[in-house]
Protein 1
Amino acid sequence: MPRHNPALHRSQKAPMTPGRKRFLVIGAILLIAALGWALAAVLKPAIQRTIVMTTGADNGIYRGFADRYAPLLKRDGITLDIRSSSGSVENYKRLQDPDSEYEVGFIQSGTTRPKETDDLQTIAAVSYEPIWVFYRGDTIVNRLAELRGKRIAIGVPGSGLLNVAQVLLSYSGVTGDNTTLLEMDAAKAYQDLENGTLDAAFFIGRPDASMQQTLLNSNLKLMSFAQADALVQKFPSLSKIIFPRASTSIVNDLPQTDVTLLAATALLVSKDTLHPALAYLLLEAAKTVHGGEDYFTPRGEFPNLNTDEFPISDESTRYFKSGRPFLQRYLPFWLASFIERRLLILLPFMALLIGLLQALPRMAQTRIKNRLVVWYREIKSLEDEIWRSPQPTADQIAQWREEIESIDANASQIRMPQRYFQDVYALKQAIGVVRERISQAAAKVQ
């Protein structure tokens, strides 16, 4: 059908204005740009391949955890970039900074006061961190108050041990005003205890760690916290644990009694922007590394979510309820994350595509029938004019006849699929009805 048909002078709209054309062109450009952006998002790598983790001292407990995580993550193509630090407090500061490159780290319970604006989340509580107090002398010490006036090593700046030691000592009235509190690392503290320049020292770590093994097999005495229950009440981030008799040596019966210790909890913490798929991988690694039994916990005790220092990640909640996501259970990680990411992006487009596919037949049918509708409108307009003219002139009759014949001629040239032939002939019948109306009007004039 021509773009502007003289036979449609009653109902045909005016040609499109330049402004409207410009508007449609701009709209098309924006649509293409949006589709291009969506395509770029789909083609973007499904997930980062490196996690930057802040741990602790190079020979410390957190570094040991990270070194065991690294090969487990490597199986799924993820590189663990391990960065050492002075300890828990520095780890917290690194993760707290939204502009830092650090994404995951270990934080000792009770060493910080998290704020809502930190944007951090707990992946899992992964292990107890026993707090050991070794001392010199013949007198049995089982209360921290008995160390008042002594020379005590309490850890290094930036470590969680330093903060916990200061808090525990303060509860017992031991402060820098009445006691010599020295900040030093574990190796130096052990040496000074051995040579007599220290009276006591705080240490933290698992009993199988090299420093703890050295201390436990030395002639130094290990303090048992007689007031453990009361201290845990005042410092809920700590737990009371028992180091069983003869755990160091059955042959030598060391220690010769059960020893009551206090323990912080190591928390695996991340920024809340960590990709969910990486959170699941870290949880799987934590389960492998920390899921066994030890002196203090039965098998399967860790990892867990028994902490309220930071908000629990949504992925952790789902993991402990139902395990890894379905695709990650049965597909390689790279493939599962690829599908998950692309499905997230493509599902809306698939829904739109299905809707379009369902609408296309109706749109095509409407477009085809619109070829007839314009002529029906023209016929209706002509018929209405005939009915409004009870006493038409000869010129009007001549004009109406010319119009109806023009409409008939154009309708005969409409190209339609065979299934719509009946609609074409319905239009022909309508033309015939109006032609008859014109004839009746012409008879009145005569």
Protein 2
Amino acid sequence: MARYFLDPFGCAKNQVDAETMMALLGASGWSAAENPAEADLIIVNSCGFIESAKRESINAVLSWRKQFPKTKILLAGCLAQRYAAELAHSLPEADGLFGNTALGGIAAAASVLLSSGGEEAPAEVPAVLKAPGARPLLSLPGSAYVKISEGCNNRCSFCSIPLIRGPLHSRPPAEIIEECRCLLDRGIRELCIIGQDIASFGEDRPGEGGLPALLEGIAALPGSFWVRLLYLHPDKFPPALPEIMAGDRRFLPYFDIPLQHGSDSVLRAMNRRGTGENYLDLIRGIRAALPDAVIRSTFLVGFPGESEDDFARLLDFQERAALDWAGCFTYSREENTPAYAMGKRVSRSAAAERKRILEERQQIISEKQMERFVGRELEALVEEQFENEEQFEHSEESGGALPAAEGGLYLGRVYCQAPEVDGVSLILSKKNLTPGSLVTCRVTGRAGLDLELRTKG
């Protein structure tokens, strides 16, 4: 039995691709190796979105080749999809390339790579998973990503996603709902709905009702679980979302809206239809409809033509928006995007300094926003247990907080914390908790960006 080791990079969409490849490989007789030294094949599932991500994926291939000179290496994912021709010549350390438009061929590609003389794959490979919800999961216990669409039609001038993933392609709603049902039957308690832009879901499937109709279908599923919506383009925001969330508490009032900037001139250059004031109105409207709403966003600094005045407008926008969470990225000049040919480029040092300023200010804003949860009773998703206080004290998640004198210590999240990108919750419990379960807790304090919780009783 051939064995593979998968080294995953990139976003949650890439993670679902990795899980799908694992399921297809398993169905074709491959087994997953615990470590690369035991593998016949190392698969690097790459990211090709921005320059730093590309370097990270290529460095992984170079590192694996140095450590395991005789092991076959397959570069898969976005980088392989976007630069297949170039990498075939410039990256001999990779024995093969496999993009992300036809994941059903992964087992055949892997088998051909291992076979002598490049023979055909020894077994036929299924083109698609019969049950997407039955795939292996790389998330922490209790949580799973559900990818409802592929590609994007928004054509932001800086973005390479359409070059990699193509135009919008929405999955059939019934297929998605069945995947959610399967995941819930497996004990999943948090369904994270993802896509390049889930607000655009269904635009290519007229008459099916788009994202609101899909959520109505998910709402018909029985049980206690969370639904978290990630990646909602502000220019496509469905007005019905706040009402849907107000009507069913399983839909978390958490909004991940990539606003990118607060200066109108920069937004126009980014091919965004909205303005800074439009986006502030959107934030105000969400909070008016849902006082408990939590809003996350991303900002892009150093875009071509971004002046000091534009950056000042962004800082003013940041202050007025008072977002719960915000990430910041410096502009990456990507080939074949409209922004690639734009003049008035901002120096890397200037962009890095703007990023530093924005992140320092956001730290203060986010800490203040998290303070409002102290004293409240919230449901928490338990993710893992600390074996002892020493492990807790040396963990990155401890945030400098003191361990409790009694009880077990757990790591988890409440509704205001999305996987991997936000703060976490440190849970103290006198009773044993099961990772992957939902428990009711009281928020007793804040440690930096993290929250401290105690279970009831």
Protein 3
Amino acid sequence: MKTSDIEALSIYPEHRLTCHPTTAKIFERFQDISNYKIVEGDRVIKVYRDEMTDLQKEILGLLSMAEEDYWENVD
């Protein structure tokens, strides 16, 4: 956050800001996001992914993680 000149993130309920988010609070922002796969035999037919919020995308950016990299590690 310091490197990106971000003073606070709205991690807490009701979008309250924090200057020092804990790992637990950051993980909470991702707890309800899911992907769904339709599988036939050993083949994945279709993948559906929940839309990430702007905050989730910002957190991934701060972690230097692309959204696609996040989804690769969700399984």
